Amino acid sequence: MRALCMPAFVVRLVCAAVPLLSSVAILVLICAPAYGQWVKVPAGGIPKAPDGKPNLAAPAPRSADGHPDLSGVWESGSAKYILDIAADLKPGDVPFQPWAKALVDQRADGSHSGEDPPANCLPRGVPRIDASPPPWRVIQKSDIIGILYESDNAWRQIFLDGRELGNDFLPAYLGYSTGKWDGDALVVDTRGFNGKTWLDQTGKPTSDALHVTERFRRTAFGRMEIQITIDDPKVYTKPWQVKEQVHLVPDSDIFESACENNRDLEHLRGKFSR
Q1: What is the DSSP letter of 222?
Q2: What does the pLDDT look like over 82-135, one tens digit per residue?
Q3: I need a labelling partner for 68 at 20 to 30 A (CA). Which of 26, 40, 188, 203 fits?
Q4: Beta strands 211-220 and 2-5: pairing type?
Q5: Where does residue 60 rank: exposed (0-12), middle (13-18), buried (19+ CB within 10 A)?
Q6: What is the DSSP letter of 162?
Q7: Rounded to 5 degrees, what angle do the CA atoms 262, 268, 271 make?
């Protein structure tokens, strides 16, 4: 069972807008448990510790072709990188072009929060969506890997069959992804972005020249690290890297999460232009 919880900023808006709600009612609204909707679910191949609990420190599984099997439901468990993708870097380590640094400084006080794509029911984009607190499911085959994100009801296809992105494509929020194995690391190359996404809630911008390289490495049965290289010559003076950790959520699932009847936007500042 996994609890479906309302984001903190939404909680604050609800409490401000509906002050007469009792504390009990608000608590129910904030975090309602999501009970399993399936019965007769086959037992998964989750290794067990001596006490019978899942042994998430066990070695990473491998697929029939010998590569690490990244399949499963994963989540970041933290909103740190959603708030600031550079949270682990030193101040000044992000190589902004001057205009981009000025733009982020303008957005720092929240006066442009209404321009953030997720506030307008639009996808978070890559790599921001990897850090979203709602979990995501990896489905792995030898020639293609699919990622189903609960956040935004979004999905990605990562092609492993050697294809390349041509010049005739429709710019996309999540771009177009190809992958290859480098030892035990899955290296995912994503291009073809529309330049409308922010890298995080602080408002780090992107352009249509964005090129994201992710190295997914399953370090244990229940742990995976993602090394991310951001290369956007229209926004940053050079490529830069961050590393995020995600963990397996055993015996869990992803749920429909439609951005419907969004009332947050009227409480946020800034004007969004499509």
Answers
A1: T
A2: 999 999 999 899 999 999 999 999 998 888 888 999 988 999 999 999 998 899
A3: 40
A4: unpaired
A5: middle
A6: S
A7: 95
DSSP secondary-structure letter at 16? Answer: H
Question: In this predicted model, what pLDDT tens digit does every residue of 201-222 receive, in sequence order?
Answer: 999 999 999 999 999 999 999 9
What is the Cα–Cα distance from 218 to 225, expressed in whole angstroms?
6
Residue 147 φ/ψ, nearest 5 degrees: -120, 120
| Interacting residues of 213 by C-beta distance below 8 A, sequence separation 6+ | 187, 188, 189, 190, 228, 229, 231
What single-letter amino acid sits at 189? D
Residue of 52, 53, 71 lying closest to 61 (CA atoms): 71
**Which secondary-structure segment (H or E) carries 226?**
strand 223-231
Tokens 């995501």, residue? 136
- Between CA 236 and CA 234 the distance in angstroms is 6
The owner of tokens 């085959």 is 141
User: What span, in angstroms and rounded, lies between the C-alpha atoms of 146 and 137?
Assistant: 8
What ranges make up the beta strands (E) of 88-210? 136-140, 144-149, 155-159, 176-182, 185-191
HSE-CB at 181 with a 13 A cutoff on CA atoms is: 18
